[in-house]
Amino acid sequence: MSTIDLLAFVAYPYLCLAVFAVGHSYRYITDRYAWNSHGSELIEKKTLFFGSYLFHFGILGTLGGHAAGLLIPQTVFDMVGIDTAAHTALAHYAGRVVGSAAFIGVLILLYRRLFIRRIRLMTTATDFAVLFGLAFVTGVGTYDVFFGGFHVLDTIAPWIRGILTLQPDPGLMADVPLQYKLHILAAFALLAFSPFTRLVHIWSVPLFYIFRRPLLFRRGVAA
Asked: What is the torsional sign of CA 128, 141, 90, 68?
């Protein structure tokens, strides 16, 4: 096990997670009124509609798939009748759908920021950095599920669980192909960068709106 492996697959993930947690907390306390997505739909809607819906469908499906596929041990899937082969096939086919949607969606959003002048003028360097970062992460991840063919359930999955349980084993990542490592390292970098961008709006999902009491409107009667 080399020093680079220890830095890349032990120290680096914890550093990124620490920046993610502390950065979001600090920004919420100090910059709460700028805690939003700074949407530009009032200027241009058509391209935003397709790009945003594709991206959000894909990225939410991707996050859900990663959580289910990497964080839940294979033994749990075996208990419900999903063996390793079925689990791998499900991950690949579902990953191709949601990964492609996320990648195409972010390319549309990037095109919108680059080539629609009114949108480009209100786009910051940070916005471009986020979009290029998302394009890289989703692009490499989509490439992996189409052309990678590497078995992650015995390598990347237990390594991720080890990170969360404070028992990381960088040796599990020794034989992982470079494109998978790039996807993982770039994703952690994006997590660390997110508190300083408009990505903070991921915490503003209006879940409580679903459960609020209905508003009653009554017509006033003249006296």
From this structure: negative
CA max distance for the chain: 85
Token match 């220890």: residue? 6
Residue pLDDT, tens place only, 68-110: 999 999 999 999 999 999 999 999 999 999 999 999 999 999 9
Q: How far apart are CA 216 and CA 218, in angstroms?
A: 7
Listed in sequence order, the DSSP H helices in the chain are: 3-6, 12-30, 46-71, 74-79, 84-115, 117-121, 125-143, 156-164, 178-193, 207-211
| Its pTM surpasses 0.85 | yes
Closest C-alpha among 152, 65, 153 to residue 102: 65
- The token pair at 3 is 């020093």
Report whether 193 contacts 133 (CB < 8 A): yes
Coil, strand or helix at 200: helix
Which DSSP string corresponds to 98-147? HHHHHHHHHHHHHHHHHH-HHHHHT--HHHHHHHHHHHHHHHHHHHIIII
